[in-house]
Amino acid sequence: MSRILIVEDDDVARELLCQALTREGYEVTVAEDGLKGYELATSLRPDLIITDIFMPAADGAHLLRRVRDTAELAATPVVVVTGYGSGGAALALSQGASAYEPKPIQPESLLATVRRLLA
């Protein structure tokens, strides 16, 4: 069973992601900001990380940079979800994201991306 870390500050989006991934049989852990997300990533070593880009405390861009700079996590696929359209996508991909999914989240599209990255 693949382990997925969700880093999302919005309660509704976090719950939607968690439900969709749990139904598919993934083991899911959640964090509400990039600081906690990085702590969990280093301790849990997830198979994939899904993160929002704009969050308080430490945003997804900060989390992504730290993941890419940490040898044990550098190869971990990271999917960025954001409601900031092409600007958010460009930022995420330039920072080293493996994929981008727009908000509002479309569970089937997200699941297809997760399956592709974990294959």
Strand-helix topology:
Elements lengths: L2 E5 L3 H13 L3 E5 L2 H11 L3 E5 L7 H10 L8 E5 L2 H10 L4 E4 L4 H12 L1
Helix pairs in contact: 2-3
Characterize this entry briefly.
The protein has 5 helices and 5 strands.
Helical content band: 40-55%
In round numbers, the mean pLDDT is 92
What's the count of strands? 5
Radius of gyration: 12 Å
* The CATH superfamily title: Response regulator
Please report which band the strand proportion falls in: under 5%, 5-15%, 15-25%, 25-35%, 35-45% or over 45%.
Answer: 15-25%
One letter per element, helices H and strands E, the order comes to EHEHEHEHEH
Structure classification: alpha/beta
Q: State the name of the first-level CATH class.
A: Alpha Beta
Spatial strand sequence of the major β-sheet: 2-1-3-4-5
- Label the overall shape: globular
Which spans of ≥5 residues are poorly predicted at pLDDT below 50?
A: none
Q: Total helix count?
A: 5
Instruction: Write down the CATH topology.
Output: Rossmann fold
Number of domains: 1
- Distance between the ends: 12 Å
